[in-house]
Design brief:
It is built from 15 helices and 15 strands. It has helices spanning 30-43, 68-81, 101-109, 124-129, 136-148, 167-180, 197-203, 212-228, 247-254, 280-289, 301-312, 321-327, 332-343, 358-361, 364-371, and strands spanning 2-8, 53-60, 84-94, 114-120, 154-160, 184-189, 232-235, 238-240, 257-261, 266-268, 272-276, 294-298, 319-320, 347-350, 353-356. The strands form three sheets. The chain has a nine-stranded mixed beta sheet with strand order 7-8-6-5-4-3-2-1-9, sandwiched between helices.
């Protein structure tokens, strides 16, 4: 099985914290972009080697601003080019201000069966400085509207560790999501990315940088609330009710094959990673001139070993020692570091599968880097 990710590099406006690839001035070439994405889908048919497609994911950018004709063109191209499972998970990322009875009807009619809604915060002042296009009221109403239109598989995004976000406010945000009755939550810690408006403000002292202790405390509070509400943390930042895990993202974390199409999109075929040029005009030009738009990195056994550690430890699926040993011989240094983390009760081992404990999840990146092979 395999997945297809479609990067739609269009946004109405730029969020101050975002460093993803997108453009807010795309109207003059939006059809050319969609056609180029379709050319790429057709031209890379061999990449997934006849594997059945079990997930399709529209990300971005803001794919919820696609016209129905654009959405249909991309989906039809995928169905004509690949064998798609009858039970495929087909997701679209959506901003609250794009969700209406009309858009929900279009998505439903065209086979979208999972919505990923970027709420981010229920505090209007946060939405304002983040330059989000929606209001708190739209955050509250859009989920209910989607549910009324028959969408059961809904995930929402929240961000914690925001400047001036108190623990009480964060608890309120998480509990509001629980009250909405959605079966999935993705919660991300605010990071200051280079070349963003937020980075510029922090450097100039216009806004306070996130406090790491506060971020850790809010993460711990998040874990308490979701556990009390029957959600499982199946990845560091992702929580779901049973049966509502993101199949698409889980495939990433399990090392399954996927093809990313569109500017800046990444792909993985088991032994190599590739990524598309992160420039809209040059991406379109590449198809007109039949020139290269993809860079590829062949992964060594050590690269694959370290990636399995980095990604696997973030998930409930963990890392299988037998899988690691097939890639590279387990070293004494690795065993020493692993035993140290076991003694601290940051890692547990069950049937040769390594997973992080609740305490370990607070230190996931540090633990993974300590286990990397040089």
């Amino acid at each position: 099985m395999a997945g297809i990710y479609i990067h739609i590099p269009f946004c109405k406006q730029k969020c101050t914290y975002c460093d993803f690839h997108f453009s807010t001035t795309f109207e003059t070439y939006r059809l050319e972009m969609i056609e180029s994405i379709c050319f790429e889908i057709q031209g890379r048919k061999e990449y997934l080697q006849d594997k059945e497609i079990n997930t399709i994911y529209f990300g971005g950018g803001t794919p919820s601003i696609l016209l129905e004709s654009e959405l249909k063109l991309v989906l039809n191209t995928i169905y004509l080019t690949f064998s798609v499972s009858l039970t495929a998970e087909i997701s679209i990322e959506a901003n609250p201000d794009d969700i209406s009875s009309i858009s929900l009807g279009i998505w439903k009619k065209n086979g979208i069966n999972r919505l990923s809604i970027g709420l981010q915060s229920f505090k209007q002042s946060d939405l304002d400085w983040m330059n989000r296009a929606h209001s708190v009221n739209e955050s509250l109403s859009c989920v209910a509207l989607a549910q009324e239109h028959g969408f059961e598989n809904i995930t929402v995004d929240l961000i914690y560790g925001l400047p001036e976000l108190s623990m009480d406010e964060w608890s309120l945000h998480v509990n509001r999501v629980m009250e909405m009755g959605v079966p999935h939550l993705s919660a991300y810690c605010l990071t200051i990315e280079d070349k963003t408006a937020l980075s510029n403000w922090v450097n100039k002292g216009k806004i306070n940088p996130p406090n790491e202790d506060t971020q850790s405390d809010q993460f711990a509070k998040l874990l308490d609330i979701i556990e009390a509400n029957g959600f499982e943390q199946y990845e560091i930042s992702n929580f779901s009710k049973a049966g509502f895990e993101s199949q698409h993202n889980s495939n990433y974390w399990k090392g399954e094959w996927y093809m990313g199409v569109g500017p800046s999109a990444h792909s993985f075929n088991g032994t190599s990673r590739s990524w598309n040029i992160a420039n809209n005009r040059q991406y379109i030009k590449a198809f007109k001139e039949h020139s290269n738009y993809i860079e590829t990195e062949q992964l060594s056994n050590i690269d694959q070993f370290n990636e399995r550690i980095l990604i696997g430890l973030r998930t409930i699926y963990g890392v299988r020692l037998s899988e690691l040993s097939k890639l590279k011989k387990i070293t004494k240094e690795f065993i020493l570091a692993l035993n140290g983390f076991k003694e601290k009760r940051w890692i547990k081992e069950d049937n040769q599968v390594l997973t992080l404990t609740k305490e370990g999840k607070l230190r996931a990146d540090y633990i993974a880097s300590a286990l990397f092979l040089d």
